[in-house]
Amino acid sequence: MIEPVVSTVASRSLIRERSARKEAETLLEQKSRELYDINLNLRQLNAHLEESETRYRTLVELMPDAIWIHCDGRIVFMNPAAQRLFGATSPEQLLGTEALERVPEAYRAQMEQGIFNDLAAAQSQPRCALRVARVDGSLVDVEFFGCAIRFNDAASVMNVAHDITERRQHEMAMEHQATHDLLTGLPNRALFLDRLTHAIRRAERHNERLAVMFVDLDKFKSINDTLGHAAGDDLLRMVAGHLKQCVRLSDTVARLGGDEFVLLLDNPLGDTMPAMIAERISMRLGQPVILGGQEHVITGSIGISIFPEDGTRAESLLRQADIAMYRAKEGGRNSFQFFTQEMQNRLDARVALEQGLHRALQRDEFVLHYQPQVNLRSGRIVGMEALLRWQSPELGLVPPLQFIPVAEESNLINAIGKWVLEKACATLRAWLDAGVPVVPIAVNVAASQFSDDDMDQLLRDTLARYRLDPGLLELELTESLSMEDPEASIELMHRLKATGIGMSIDDFGTGYSNLSYLKRFPVDKLKIDQSFTRGLTSDPEDRSIVTAVIRMAHSLGLRAIAEGVETEGQLRLLAAEGCDEIQGYYFSRPLPEQAMLAMLARDMGMDLAPLTRTVQRRTVLLVDDEPQVLSTFRKLLGGHGYDVLTAHGLAEAYELLAGNDVGVVISDQELVGHTGIDFFHRIKRMYPRTVRVLLTADTTPANLGDAINKGAVFKFVEKPWRDEALLAVLASGFAHHERF
Ligand SMILES: Nc1nc2c(ncn2[C@@H]2O[C@H](COP(=O)(O)O[C@H]3[C@@H](O)[C@H](n4cnc5c(=O)[nH]c(N)nc54)O[C@@H]3COP(=O)(O)O)[C@@H](O)[C@H]2O)c(=O)[nH]1
């Protein structure tokens, strides 16, 4: 079959049309799918952007650092931390305001330097420290950086600040602690020296003067020891306040430590200013203060050095003021002294002496001399004191007074004390081995030696090493030594006593002994200081002290030894007062080893003739009805060099008084038919120079008051009497008789 042509053409065209439409539809579908994808992507992108912005915004909002952005000089954004930093109640309070208002003028240049072109550059640099202003005008310490950014499509600056107030406060507190004294709040040594150094530089530039004052409280240690450390601290705080009141605000008052304060008096400094301020300080310190509920008067010693006259370096000015302060202390405290070159020379000499002492120990330049101690009843040598000398190749024989104080202050005394002990024991051993009749050696013990815990061990070891009887060693302790820590001293003394070592209190009466401690010291002797011995024949006070010390020694069961006895007069009075032993030039000066050895070997003693002559004139009369009492009395006094008369009735007593130069009359109160007091009233009229001593069991004022008041009875002795008490009264009776 033949198809029509038209229909064939039409169908072909239809096919083409269909195919074209199909293509178009496919394209459309594809485009629409692409459009859909684009849409989808755009939505996703938007969502991402939104999410990212929210994230960044949250981050910025939560940032602890303050962030604010300014554009064209005005704040356009700030996070809550910035709002807090500036103390704004809302962001609106600051948005739109001048950014520079937040930075005080003084810090603007610093701020400019802290702003960078990009974040990377800003973050690679250290933040700068500056201050920003809060809305109330107060300033806040911050660490800051800034960087250029685009914000809202405009060129802007982002500022980031971190509040460092707390850290600054902590740093300042730390700095304060490092430069100030915690107790008083005053500058410490480091800060003082720093200020002094700066002041010196300034004074040098302007040709000005400065003064450094060193103030040391007198006897602060005793306040601490007696009232406790809390009271000591109170005192130091008070003194700090008082010192500040004495100077201008521009001057510096500092505490170096302990009770040492220093002041820097800054320019303008008139010639009289330092002395005037020192006077002011002395007066202010001298006003009574209440400590531990009681009023106390505190004084201070002040040393002054002046720039530029005395030095140009801070350390040396301070040292010179210190030296001057020591001189003020030596001069009796509560005074002030200006530094002088002579002080420096003395100090240099002292340092040289100290070095010399070190060498002396190393080179074995010390020697001991020995001074004999003599018993006043037997005249025999009963002991010897070892006295140190320094045989210096450069200085010759140096006496201890020139170097012992330096040795004590420089702590060399312990090593020297050890040497003395060693040498004394070695000498005793050598003499014993040579068959010489030795006597105990007394060695001086310094306070610091005695506070050494190992002292008793050292003594025991040394004695054992030389195989010596501990009784051959005596320690001379000073009152002050045993008072430093009395309880510890007492313990140590008991330990030493238990070993058999003898002990005496040296220079007795010159310190400030507490007598209640004294009675607990297990010592054997009190050594009367030579200053009292010296005044014995001429000064009634010295004589009373010597008498009192001898009596006290005896009543405590101790022996009394007087040192520094030079004359026969001193010797006689000491014997009359019942002193047991003497030491002094009268019998012998301190001797070198060989001379002392010879003296012991010859058993040399002291001639007692001068004492015997005195005794013959000392006549005592005892009146008692009982023969037994009279004979006991004779026996007791026989050994003491008195001329003893006895009467067993009044008639006999009157006979004896008439025929003899009687110095002291001792009478029993209970006489047959009479009383001792009546007897004394009568002989007082007849023999007024006689000294009258009553023996009585009734010591009440009713019995004795009137007789004592009228001078009939000089002293009474309670019956039954103790021999020492009777002897002491007798000795003082004769002393009284001979005085008037
Ligand atoms: N810690 C130590 N101290 C010691 C030691 N050796 C001595 N000293 C102390 O030095 C002070 C002075 O001693 P010195 O110069 O030896 O004087 C003594 C005697 O020589 C002197 N003396 C003795 N008799 C007389 C005298 O009749 N007249 C007079 N003017 N002086 C005399 O007295 C000193 C004795 O002192 P003392 O010890 O108090 O008995 C002195 O304080 C010594 O203690 C030592 O080794 N260690």
Automatic annotation (TrEMBL):
The keyword Phosphoprotein applies. GO terms for biological process: cellular response to nitric oxide; phosphorelay signal transduction system; regulation of DNA-templated transcription. Signal peptide: none annotated. Keywords: Phosphoprotein. GO terms for molecular function: cyclic-guanylate-specific phosphodiesterase activity. Residues 350-604 form the EAL domain. Residues 52-92 form the PAS domain. InterPro entries: Biofilm_reg_signaling, CheY-like_superfamily, EAL_dom, EAL_sf, GGDEF_dom, Nucleotide_cyclase, PAS, PAS-like_dom_sf. Residues 208-341 form the GGDEF domain. It catalyses: 3',3'-c-di-GMP + H2O = 5'-phosphoguanylyl(3'->5')guanosine + H(+). The keyword Nucleotide-binding does not apply. It holds the Pfam family Response_reg. Coiled coil: none annotated. It comes from the Bacteria. Residues 619-734 form the Response regulatory domain. The modification 4-aspartylphosphate is found at D668. NCBIfam families: GGDEF (TIGR00254), sensory_box (TIGR00229). This is EAL domain-containing protein. The lineage of its organism: Bacteria, Pseudomonadati, Pseudomonadota, Betaproteobacteria, Burkholderiales.
